[in-house]
Design brief:
- The complex is a heterodimer of chains A (161) and B (135).
- By secondary structure, chain A is α+β, with helices and mostly antiparallel strands.
- Chain A has a single domain (8-150), classed as Aminopeptidase, CATH 3.40.630.
- In chain A, 29% of the residues lie in helices and 22% in strands.
- In chain A, strand 2 and strand 3 (60-70) form a beta hairpin.
- In chain A, helix 1 (18-29) packs across helix 2.
- The radius of gyration of chain A is 18 Å and the shape is globular.
- The model of chain A has no long low-confidence stretch (mean pLDDT 91).
- With 135 residues, chain B is mainly alpha-helical.
- Chain B has helices spanning 5-19, 27-34, 38-50, 75-82, 100-122, 125-134, and strands spanning 54-57, 63-66.
- Chain B has a two-stranded antiparallel ribbon.
- In chain B, strand 1 and strand 2 form a beta hairpin.
- Classes of the chains: A alpha+beta (161), B mainly alpha (135).
- Chain A binds chain B through residues 122-123, 125, 128-129, 131-133, 135, 138, and chain B through 74, 114-115, 118-119, 121-124, 126-127, 130-131, 134.
Chain lengths: 161, 135
């Protein structure tokens, strides 16, 4: 991974980084999710086509990004998915997340994909603004959901399909 | 989505000021660049100044400059000044609004409005400038 200057570098996460990553997420979200981040590392750390990268400033983890290349989900050709990104609030406005995003995009390109995709809560204006600032636009997919208990009966005579 | 003429004027004006930070841009220049009516643009600029989005400098070499932080100001800030964006609180109910079909229609339109608002809120002036360079 790239070395951006003397004190800052982008590198893959290691198991020892999990507490620092969980601490950044806890600062952002207000919820401690240590076991979730351990599981994320198990899924994304050191795996082919999966990436869990960190911004390391003079030995201090100040941001992370995780994603993977997925193929043919929802009928989509292979593309890179970003599943998680977070920056320590004290490190914002220093372009660390932009560097991480560029690094994971480079990694996706090295795997032969030319599209990067993510999903964001509509009310998460900060993260959505960040991805917009990187050039991302709405893609060709629309996310749909419903409470399962509100599903119409399978034998509904008025169903379209 | 079709924007009202005033909204487009406002977006073009703010965009133009953000593109040239520090320079005093005249209403005539903006109107000329985008083919707008100077009179209409002047009204829009007054509204933008009232909102403290821009400021005017009088006299020779005067004009308008951006008063807001382009990294923080979003398209929503500007558009919502001139358009009703799904916020019809206080407006009289539309005919048929209390029927089953009216309520179903409200659910669909609310979904569309929510996406519109989220989109406009996520695009800062700085991002919009970058977009314009890619266009």
């Amino acid at each position: 991974m790239s070395l951006t200057d003397d004190n800052h570098r982008i590198r893959p996460a290691t198991e020892r980084d999990i507490p620092a990553i969980a601490a950044i997420d806890a600062r952002i979200t207000g919820a401690a999710k240590d076991s979730y981040w351990r599981e994320m590392f198990d899924r994304f750390g050191n795996r082919p086509d999966r990436y869990f990268l960190l911004s390391d400033s003079a030995g201090r983890v100040d941001a992370y990004i995780a994603g993977e290349v997925r193929a043919w989900e929802f009928g989509s050709p292979p593309c890179g998915w970003v599943f998680a990104i977070g920056t320590d609030p004290d490190a914002r406005q220093r372009k660390v997340a932009s560097r991480l995003f560029a690094a994971i995009c480079d990694a996706f390109k090295d795997r032969g994909v030319d599209t990067v995709r993510t999903m964001i809560a509509r009310e998460d204006e900060l993260i959505m603004s960040f991805f917009r600032s990187q050039g991302m636009m709405a893609g060709p997919f629309v996310q749909l959901e419903m409470p399962i208990d509100e599903a119409w009966p399978a034998d509904d005579p008025e169903a379209d399909t | 989505m079709k924007l009202q003429r005033s909204t487009r004027c406002a977006l073009f004006a703010v965009f133009e000021l953000a593109r040239e930070p520090g320079r005093h841009v005249s209403a005539a220049e903006i109107a000329d660049t985008y083919g707008l009516s100077v009179n209409h643009l002047a009204k829009v600029l007054r509204e933008l100044a009232r909102a403290r989005f821009i400021q005017s400098v009088r006299g020779a070499g005067g004009g308008y400059t951006l008063a807001a932080n382009p990294k923080r100001m979003t398209l929503y800030d500007i558009v919502s000044r001139f358009e009703e964006l799904g916020d019809d609180d206080g407006a009289p109910p539309e005919p048929g609004a209390d029927t089953d079909a009216g309520q179903a229609l409200t659910r669909v339109l609310t979904e569309i409005d929510a996406i519109t608002v989220a989109t406009l809120k996520s695009i800062s002036l700085t991002t919009f400038l970058k977009l314009s360079r890619k266009a």
